[in-house]
Amino acid sequence: MSSLYAIKDHSSEKRLFINRIVAAFILVSLLTAGLVIRLVYLQVAGHEHYSSLAKDNSIKIVPLVPTRGMIFDRKGRVLAENRPSYSLEIIPEQVSNMEDTLSRLQKLLDLSDEDIEQYQKLRKRQKNFISSPLLVSMNEEQLARFAVVRPYFQGVDIHRQLVRHYPYSDLTAHVIGYVGRINEAEMKDLPIAEYRGSSHIGKLGIESSYESQLHGKTGYAEIETNVQARLLNTLKEVNPQPGANLYLTLDIDLQKTAYDALGSFNGAVVAIDIKTGGVLVFVSRPGFDPNPFVVGIANDAYQALQSSENQPLYNRALRGLYPPGSTIKPFIALAGLEFEVINAEQKFFCPGYYLLPGVTHRYRDWKKGGHGAVDLTRAITESCDVYFYRLASSLGIDNMYSFLHKFGFGEKTGIDLVGEKSGLLPSREWKRERKNQAWYPGETLITGIGQGYLQVTPLQLAKATATLASDGKVMTPFLVDKMLGTQSTVLGIEHSAYTIPLKQEHFNSVVRGMINVVHSEHGTAKGINKNITYQIAGKTGTAQVLGIKQNAKYDENSIDFKYRDHALFVSFAPVDDPQIAVAVVVENGGHGGSVAAPIAGEIIKQFLQENYEN
Amino acid sequence: MKTETRHEQFEAPSVLGTMLRRLHIDIPLFIGLLLTSIVSFVILYSAGGQNMEVLVRQFSRVALAFALMIILAHVDPYQFKRYSSVLFAFGIILLIAVLIMGQIGKGAQRWLELGSFRFQPSEMIKITTPMMIAWYLAEYPLPPRTKQLLVAVILIVIPTLLIAKQPDLGTALLVASSGAGVLFFAGLSWWIIVAIVTGLAALTPIIWHFMHDYQRDRVLTFLNPEADPLGRGYHIIQSKIAIGSGGIYGKGWLGSTQSELDFLPESSTDFIFAVFAEEFGLMGCLGLLALYLLIIARCLYIASQAQDSYSRLLASSLAFTFFVYVFVNVGMVIGVLPVVGVPLPLISYGGTSIVTLLAGFGILMSIHTHRKFS
After folding, report:
1. What is the pTM of this model?
2. Fewer Cβ within 10 Å of end Cβ, chain A: N or C?
3. How many CB atoms neighbour CB B42 within 10 A?
4. Which position has the higher pLDDT, B15 or B26?
5. Is A60 within 8 Å of B261 when comparing Cβ atoms?
6. Any bridge partners for residue A570, and if so which?
7. ipTM score of complex
């Protein structure tokens, strides 16, 4: 590649190069002179200013961590608070004889050898002048003992900090969630300045979804410290802004009633204030104690929770997916009326099974001999499957899909909790996309009785029931009613609502059937109509866990508990002026009427007694 | 070795001189580097919390780097020229490999793992880029014509973008300036230089658009550190306090309170100049800058004495890049430039940059001690 087409002029190249070397040296000198000018500015002109900042004493900017906002229920009872906790910390640099100090402390405070060993490990990982904890939380006796001899322990000191505490423990674990130590992944996404000094962050539930409001705004202080890093003087302080206090719509009494009523069953209960959309009860049982998560849960304890068959960490109310069973029937009935494929008075004969044209498979009713001639009201009251097979068949999956979608099935309710599941409302397109199969007519039938692909969360059921109760008014359920900031300003939360345009008489027909579920002789939940002065509209449901073969018989007693049907119940009351909607799912509870309905009955009674004296 | 006998005729013979020449060592440059390394140990001992372990580790790295320098000084510059394009291509391939592995893993990826040995291709590229550009331009008459300029610009832009994507803004900047340095010394027209500088100023908003959030943060913080005293501004504020409180004569060795009490983050690495300025004051800073200036002057002198275009361009560009190192680091520590991850050359704690830097000086010594006299 040598120069064939151009001849190098070596002497001119050299001249040019020397020029450039000179130019470069001039540039380098000028830029260096620039650095020198800046250094003179800092070290001569600014010396006094910066010295006063550093002096023999030094200025340190320390973050002032805001106090995390508290969480209260609708009556002002504390659900999450900050409790003082005391730790014993050591600055190794200031301790003259570490071994001696540790052995004296061990004797004084009854520490185990493991405690000491753990501290020794921690100490090796940290710089000598950094304070590190020997004891994370001191009990009162340890506090008192150490306080007396404190002057004899140079470099050892008690540190006070606030630790998040949840007084209702497992009762509120799935709603409130908990805070835990910030992990590396979270650190990456956090605003560094805001979280300098903060050690904890909301991990789940309200603690997580309202993290920014609860956390508050970090302040800082410029403090002067001496060589021993002791505070001498505060030069400037920008106070932190404490986090907002949250007031929930939740009623802890009702919550407890629901939790206790579930007894030994696993399950979920959600109750919604129909007038506002506020969530009154949000129970997922079993719960778990969130308090160990705050200080850092021991690995084996965490493993035990994780591997427990009852899945206590699983938020059933928010994320549990269940076939709705017959609780879907009121909505299917409403769809039938709206699409005018039936009218309320029309009667159909139920022989105990339903046949699709050209198919030998018998779609069976839960009642072996059949219900005879049933109209819409009776079909709901007695939960006649054959009536709804026929109805579903006439509606078709497309109509069912579009109608159920309006009631919020198959999509998140939009509640102010993170991690909500959207359930599954099947459609032709969904099946084509997911399974690459056509939709079969038989699948339309079983969707009509709430089985098959259809899956709902307890929260969705409660929301849909509230929509039904308020004649089609759709409200986004919410937990946080108001936030109180530092300047005692109410930071209200806007809630939107809209109404599905449906005929009032259609609602009335369906509700009539639901009233009879509770208040008529043939009703599937007639057990809860005793001693009440108001009317409850409800619908029971039974969701199959196990598929039952054609001609086989389902015998509750003969099968394993975990394969028993789930019991469901949706309801609202009072019928003449609906206040509260309740959805109950009892896992492996058997029949909706006998297990799930009484739980709803109790909640309704307690709520109305208190809020709706008539 | 015929050339060596000629050396002896050219320069005053002495026993030590003969020995060092046999070693292909340039004495002024060697002394300058040695002095800087001693300064490094002195200040590292203080900045690293008087930790002997830190010192020992750094010493072994510096020893390794000096050894590499002497080895490279023995290589005939013709060999560097010959393998310039091969080494450059190899470096680019490694950079791409690192990027691909970075996408498989996550986050910033700068390392290539070869067994237990970790290798940072972007370090190698700091030297092979000016080698490549010098080799390419030296084939044609200088100053370069438009076509050669365009090719050279592309050759600079490729490694720069690959490194910026890692993302490692500091190294990308050094690689770009090492290539740009060659163009400058090759005689790039002053008009074009002025046009590029104005063009870059106009391009700022576009560059801003392509920056990572953390890079934007750094620029914003640089413009107004007091706005974010707990976040990014912390470094710069603490650094200025350390330097300013040093005054004219400094607080004396081990007298830095800012780094001692851990107020100054990264006091052993990128921000070590702040510790130096606090302990040795303006006088110390002037001394250190003078030492750097002498090294750069010697390198430029070596470039001016080089006998072919390739050697001239490479030597002068290496000298220039060394200055960019100093300027960017000191500039950021004293708060006149935004914070980019560039260490203080030969002084900051950390091995990779020292090895590359001394390799560069090894090439300079090779160029100077292999001259043929006519």
Report:
1. 0.62
2. N
3. 17
4. B26
5. yes
6. A539, A583
7. 0.89
